[in-house]
Specification:
mainly alpha
Length: 143
């Protein structure tokens, strides 16, 4: 191991990896009329229907105001809809539309292809280890 590996900052290595991945994903998603942030929003809303705008913002790593603008654009595109929150009249819940489900399903193979290309040099064990580490980091911070 060289001295750069020993003194490097994992945080910035992860950031650079994400920026590289984001660039690759953006190209694949553009063919489906989606941005990386829109795709992430569709994924999180599919996984947890009824998130509030603020919750979507936290999950996709943006402010409530930016999430509101993102969701407004996605509503106009017919990808999501807002519904009244039965537990809190001051907030609305975000749900996928049939169009959002369809667009997500159409884009998913392109994302899998990019991820497979980026992970091609890794063994199955390496892939599993990397995914487990990333999942652990998410839960450790959210926990």
């Amino acid at each position: 191991m060289d001295s750069k590996d020993e003194t490097g900052c994992v945080t910035f290595l992860v950031r650079h990896a994400w920026l590289s991945m984001r660039s690759a994903l953006a190209g694949a998603l553009a063919e489906h009329g989606l941005s990386v942030q829109q795709y992430g929003t569709l994924l999180c809303v599919r996984e947890d229907p009824g998130l509030t705008v603020a919750e979507v913002g936290r999950v996709v790593g943006t402010t409530r105001q930016s999430a509101n603008e993102l969701i407004t654009g996605m509503e106009r595109a017919g990808l999501v809809e807002r519904r009244p929150n039965p537990k809190d009249r001051r907030t609305q819940q975000v749900h996928l539309t049939a169009g959002g489900e369809r667009r997500l399903a159409e884009a998913a193979p392109a994302i899998r292809k990019v991820e497979n290309e980026l992970e091609a040099a890794f063994s199955t064990t390496d892939r599993a280890t990397a995914r487990a580490w990333l999942a652990h980091m998410v839960t450790a911070v959210e926990g």
